[in-house]
Known about the structure:
By secondary structure, chain A is α+β, with helices and mostly antiparallel strands.
Amino acid sequence: MNGEHDIGGRHGFGRIEHTPDDPTFHERWEARVFAIALSSGGSRGGVNLDAARHRGERLDPVAYFRNGYYGRWLAALELGLQENGFLAPGELDAWLMGGAGPADKATSARAPAARRGGPMPNLSFTREVDHAPAFALGQAVLTRNHQPAGHTRLPAYARSRRGVIRRIHPAMVFPDTNAHGLGENPQYVYSVEFDGAELWGDAAEQGTCLMLDLFESYLEPGPPEELP
Amino acid sequence: MSEIHEHGTPEIALRVEALESLLQEKGLLDPAAVDAVIRYFEQDIGPLKGARLVARAWLDPAFKARLLEDPAGAGGVVGVTVLEHLVVVENTPETHNVVVCSLCSCYPWSVLGLPPSWYKSPAYRARVVREPRAVLAEIGLSLPEDMRVRVWDSSSEVRYMVLPMRPAGTEHLGEDALAALVTRDSMIGVAVPRLA
C-alpha cells in the first residue's frame, strides 16, 4: 500500500531526537493503550498482526502522524474493535461527550474476557511447507514492481531493484493475504542484500548495503550479468 | 518534523481512559490483565536480557556460535526466553550492522524490551535506510570510512539484534561487568560498547 507508513528513504523528517535512556512509556495513556490492545485486541482466535498493522496504515496521512506511535495503536485498536463488532462507529465519541452507556450491552456475552496465555502475543509466524525454496543462497534476484492497494511488506524504495539472496528463512505467514482474511499462504522469506547505489543511486553513501526480508512472491530471478 | 507531538495531544489520554471504561463496562477487558501486561513490559523484560546474551557470547566462543546459529536455543542456556524469530548479526572490524523497521517498528521485544521513541520516529525510519553513516554520526557514532555499513530493515516477522564487538581492555571483566557495558543502543547498532 502506498501509504504514509512507507517512509523509508523519504526526505524532510529532520534530526533524530535521540535519547540514550528512554522510558518504556512516556505517558500512562501509552502504557494503557498498548496493554489494552494486547489484552483485548478486539478479535477472537489469536492475534492477526498483519491485519493490526494494516489498520494503522489505513489512517489518513494527518492522523498517521498526529499522536505518534501509540496514537496509531489507539486508532488501530478502535478500528479493530469496530470491525469485529465490539464497538459501534461513534460509540466512543458519544461516551466521551456525555457518558452514554454502551450501545450494545449484549457484547459481553460473546466477549473474550482477556487474552489467554502470557503477556506477550504469540509471535510465531513460521509454518511448515512441503516444497523447496525457489531461490538459492547467492542467487541474484529482482524485486517485482509490487504495489497492491492492500497490505504488503515490500517497501516502495525496494521495488524493481536487484539484490542477492543472503539467507533463507523458514516459510512464514504471508502478510499480503493474511492481513485481509485471505489465508496464511505461508512462503519462504529471504534476506536479500541490496547495494546502497542500487537503492539510492548517486545519493548513496559509500560502502553501505541494505538487507531486507522479502517474501518469495515479491521476487523474480535476476539477471546475474548485470550485477556488480 | 519536531512540531509533531510524538507523545500525543492532551485529549488522547482522556480518549484512552474512556475506551478502557467502555470496554470494561462491556465485559471486554479485565483491568488486572492490562496491569499485568504493563508490569511485564516495564519490569520483566528489557535490554538486560540481550546484554546477558552478548556478555556470554564475548566470554564463550561456543555460546557465541550457538547464538548466531540458534538464538532461541542459546537464550535457553542463560535463562533468556526468546519469543521472536530472532537473528543475531555480528559486528566485525570490517562490517558494522544497524537495525531499523521502515514500515512500522518491528523490534525484538523479548530480548530488548519495547523500542525507544527515537527508533519508532519517522525521522529514524526514513533516514537510516538511506544515509546510515550520517545518521550514526548524528547520534554520536562516527565509523571509519573503510568500514562497511549494513542496514537491516526488519520489514517482516524476522527480528534483529546486533552482537557488538567486545571493547579492548575488558579482558579482566566477568560476565556481569561485561553485560553492564552493553547498552540497548549498541544492540540496535547506533552505538558501540565502551569501557567507562
